[in-house]
Amino acid sequence: MDHNKTKNASEGIAPMGITTLNETVLSNQPESRYECPVCLNWLRDPVITTCGHKFCKSCITSWLKNSGHCPIDNINLSMKVDIFPDNYTKREIQEQRMSCPFAAKGCAVKVTPLDLDAHISTCEYNQPESSTQPNIEIPCSFVAVGCKETFDNQEDANSHLHNDVLSHMSLLMNAYSKIKIDNDMSNMDAKAQEALLWDAPDKDGNQSTTPPINDVNPLIRALYERVVVLEQRNREQDIVIANISKQLSAFAVAKMKQNNDMLLRYCMGHYIWKVDNFRARLDAMLKDHNKMLYSPGFYTSPNGYRFCVRLNISPQNPKYFALLVHLMKTENDDYLDWPFNGRISFAMINQYDPEYTQRDTMMSDSTLVAFRKPTTEICLRGFGYSEYAVVDDIMRNGFVKNDVLIVKVETRFPLSCDHRCAEAGKRIKPTNLVFQTLTSAPRPSRQMHGTNVNTSWTFKMAVLSQLIGFANRFSRAPC
Amino acid sequence: MANIAAKRIKREIIEVVKGEEGVLKLELVNNAWTDLLGEIAGPPDTPYEGGLFKLEIKIPETYPFNPPKVRFITKVWHPNVSSVTGAICLDILKDQWAAALTLRTVLLSIQALLASAEPNDPQDAVVARQYIENEPLFELTARHWTNVYANGPTVVWEFNQKVQTLLEMGVDEHNARVALSTYNWDVEGATEQIFS
């Protein structure tokens, strides 16, 4: 009888199959009345709800932590009042005895369904794969380094491991040196590796599986792309630099102009006019007597009068230079006293021997239009010498050096009216008085109309006598 | 992965495999029992009839106390399925999940969802609007998508030609189909949307 029973039991299980793991699991499939709907396993410490459903105690506890409803019919459940131990079901399950799914292999163990899983995992007949799936071959555990042996069962595999230590060692050695070479390569090609990062599409495929030496093409492509990127950046930088240098030179020009303006405004009436390129300018003036040289306007004080110096070939006598000052408009004209009262000195610098520098001082004449508040940008009338120096003397006697003529102009200002008279009486020597008989020449328009200078006869004589003295001085010049 | 989850998934797979042949499928993607591939057949008498729809199933560690994450891999034109991501708007995958539900019941529920759309609780507003405003066009569009993406039997030549028109303009095929479906198969509207 006993024998029959055993046979029946094993037959009852055998049709379910014990050849695959899934069916091993399936072999422990409970009847639905013993199954927990949450874990789908045998009810463990079964409880029953007021709505008539059975669960493992732990399953329903876990579920009700987050939900207040029955997992099956959604009826409200409270852990405290709606859950009762189902000891009847518990006893029924514990009375069941199940044969081990490996009974066909010879396991005679019979356990309660709840203990079956625990037994299966420790069952001595539960040999991994080999016992249940004899057709599957076991690869050698050195398959990763290249051992291609496979075995029908674990014992063969074990004996292979014991017997082929040497070949496994050499496989290991080979694998090691390959890794070492790859490693060295990748260290050596750090840049190349970095470049590879640019090559997004190939990155995944090549980096791990192919050794770097096969990556030449993608590498070249990556490098090429990098070159293109860098060239592009280079071009952009060039443009930036060009823009900056353009700004810089514009800034430098503005700065220079500002400096010049500063010099002119803060020269306090002491202006040094350097006429460069003098030979060419002179030739142009000799060719066309209408041409004149004007200096930039300079200020007697930062907010004072503004003058400019004019040099041209005398319209009366082409052998002579005329040298005059013109008042210019300033933004301060409304606050200044008019007519201009002051002293103006010319000095044409002898650049080889300062002793021969030609100096002349003139006092302003308040009756002249030239000293009234200017109505045009440059006052039409100038004040100075219509025949100041002989052209040839200037060129010959050391006044031009390196093609530059230097004229120094000094204006003395301000002097209050009374003070000025007293000063003038005191300071100006009688010899200088001759220069006070000076011309008040109209400022010729640039088109050179009406350049006639209103000089009276006496005027001319005085100028002439002065010029003779001037010429004498020139004749004494050393060069 | 928690022991209970893995154990349950094993049983659930068996349950599905042993269940309705040819209607549901469930496969393991990895050995950790966390990623599965499901397949459902389009329900009969719907625009999805004849199509096979693949689903990505991810099992959370807290399963079955929390629902599995399920989305369509196969593109579907349905008010409660995102035509872009495949996300499914289904209550039992969210707040109405119950531990007694299984992957088999989930797949059956999704199948049922295909048969009875819920346009007032949409996942894809564009599809839902079309469903409400022009149901015949929606059905034809869904049939077309089923044909193209799920091997459905109904070929809609007119739609194929319109997609082809956009393809020739250099538009990606799927983008073209989405734009045309969105614009009720108005080629001009779709073109404008793609190139704006």
Automatic annotation (TrEMBL), chain A:
GO terms for molecular function: ubiquitin protein ligase activity; zinc ion binding. It comes from the Eukaryota. InterPro entries: MATH/TRAF_dom, TNF_rcpt-assoc_TRAF_met, TRAF-like, TRAF1-6_MATH_dom, Znf_RING, Znf_RING/FYVE/PHD, Znf_RING_CS. It is found in: Cytoplasm. Transmembrane segments: none annotated. Keywords: Cytoplasm, Metal-binding, Zinc, Zinc-finger. GO terms for biological process: innate immune response; lipopolysaccharide-mediated signaling pathway; regulation of apoptotic process; regulation of canonical NF-kappaB signal transduction. Residues 268-411 form the MATH domain. Its main location: cytoplasm. GO terms for cellular component: cytoplasm. Residues 36-74 form the RING-type domain. Pfam families: TRAF-mep_MATH, zf-C3HC4_2. This is TNF receptor-associated factor 6. The lineage of its organism: Eukaryota, Metazoa, Ecdysozoa, Arthropoda, Hexapoda.
From TrEMBL, chain B:
It is an enzyme of class 2 (transferase). Residues 4-151 form the UBC core domain. Keywords: ATP-binding, Nucleotide-binding, Transferase, Ubl conjugation pathway. It holds the Pfam family UQ_con. GO terms for molecular function: ATP binding; ubiquitin conjugating enzyme activity. InterPro entries: UBA (IPR015940), UBA-like_sf (IPR009060), UBC (IPR000608), UBCD4_UBA (IPR042614), UBQ-conjugating_AS (IPR023313), UBQ-conjugating_enzyme/RWD (IPR016135). The active site is at residue 89. The keyword Glycosyltransferase does not apply. PROSITE patterns: UBA, UBC_1, UBC_2. Residues 158-196 form the UBA domain. This is E2 ubiquitin-conjugating enzyme.
